[in-house]
Automatic annotation (TrEMBL):
Keyword Ligase included in the entry's annotation: no
Protein name: Phosphohexomutase
Pfam families: MPI_cupin_dom, PMI_typeI_cat
Domain Mannose-6-phosphate isomerase cupin: 255-322
CDD domains tied to this protein: cupin_PMI_type_I_N_bac (cd07010)
Entry-linked PANTHER family: FRUCTOKINASE, TRANSCRIPTIONAL REPRESSOR MPRA
Amino acid sequence: MDGAAFCTLFRKNRLLCSISGIFEVYKMKTIQLTPSCKDYLWGGEKLRTEYGIQSELHPLSEAWMLSCHPDGPSYLPDGSTFQQYINTHPGCLGTHCEKFSEFPVLAKLIDAKKDLSIQVHPSNEYALEHEHQYGKTEMWYVLEAEPGASLYYGFTHEISKEEFERRIQDNTLTDALNAVPVHKGDCFFIPSGTLHAIRKGIVVAEIQQNSNVTYRIYDYGRLGADGKPRQLHIPQALDVTLREPPKAQDFHGHLAQCDYFTVDAVEGDFEDVCDETSFTSLLVLEGRGTLTETATGESLPIRKGQSLFLPAGTGAYAVTGTDLKCLRTRV
C-alpha cells in the first residue's frame, strides 16, 4: 500500500470511529427492566390486569421490578440480567453505593388477594451470621386498598419474650398486634426486627434491602404447593423480633430514608437530575407519558407498571405525560 492510499484509509477509519463515538455519546442511558415474578399462594391477578406485568404465573403475587437477587433477577431488553449490566458498567450505581459489597436495593410490586403470613426480617448482623446474606429493612407504599383493609405493624404495647412465645403457641398473637387500617397513598417504614403482615385486599410497592430472608411466625395453618404446612421459623423470630410498638420516624420530607434507600413519590410532570452520587430508579405507578434525557435528547415512552433504571451520571431528565405518578428511589 502506497502512502496516499494509507492516508485515505486512515482518514476513513477516523471518520467511522468518530461517527461510532457520536452514536455512543447520544445513546439513551435509561433502561427499562423486566421483572422476575412469583406465584405465592396468597396472590391475585391485579399486577397483570392493572399494572401490565406479563407473566404466565397464576396467581401473580409479586413482581421484582428492580433486582439483582439470585432468587429473582430483573432483566434488560436484550435478556441479560441487571447484575450483568452492573458488572460491565463500573460506576453506574454512583459514589454513594461504593460502600456496599452488592447492589443495596430490591423493589417489588405486591398484590395480596389473601393475607400474607405474620413475619419478621432479621438485622444485618443476625442474617450474616445465620443466613449468609444481609438482613432486611423495607418500606411499603400503598397503591390500592379495598374498603376495610388493614395490615399488622408491630405490637400495640411492649411484651416480654415469654409472652411472645406463649401467644404464638396458644394462637393469641394477633390480640397483641397493632392492626392499622390502610388507604391508598399510606406509607409504612419497617426496620428489621419489626413484626408485620400485609393483609388481603392491598397492593403495595415495596422498596427493601437486597435480601430474601423472611421468618414466618404464623401462617393461618395453610398448606404449600407440596400439600404440607408451610415452614415456620419460631426460634429465629424469637431471637430477632422487636416486641414493641413501631417508633415514629422523621424522614425530612421523604417517604422513607435509611442507609440503603431514599424514596419519594412524584406526581405529574417533573424535571430532575441523576448525578454521579446515585442511580435513580423510577417505578411508574399511574398514568403514561415520556421520559426524555437532556444530554442525549433521547426519549422513552413510559406507562403504569414499568421499572426504569437511570445510571448515575445520566444527568438532567424530564418526565411528562397524563395522570403520572412515580416512585423514585436513590441511595
